[in-house]
Amino acid sequence: MSSGFRVAKAGLQCSAQDSGRIGYQSYGIASSGALDLRSLAIANILVGNPEGEAALETCLAGPELEIEVGNVMAIAGADMEPKLNGEAVPQYAAFAVSPGDILSLGAAVTGCRAYLAFAGGLDLPLVMGSRSTNVKCGLGGLEGRGLRAGDRIGFRSPLAPLDPDPRRRARTEDFSGRVATLRAVAGPQDEFFTQAGIDTFYGAEFCLTERSDRMGCVLEGPVVQAKGKTDIVSDGIPLGAIQIPSQGKPIVMLADRQTTGGYAKIATVIGADIPLLAQRRPGEKVAFKRVSVGEARRDALTEIAQLAELRRHIERGG
Amino acid sequence: MPKASFRPAGDRAIVASFGEAINEELNAAVLGLDRNLEEDSIAGVIETVPTYRSLLVYYDPAKLSFRRLERELAKRSCSLSNAAPRSGRTIEIPVRYGGVYGEDLSDIARYCGLSEAEVIARHSDRDYRIYMLGFLPGFAYLGGMDPSLAMPRLDTPRKAIPAGSVGIGGEQTGIYPLASPGGWRLIGRTPLKPYDPRREPPILYRAGDFVRFRSVDDEEFEDIRASL
Question: What ipTM was predicted for this assembly?
Answer without folding.
Answer: 0.95
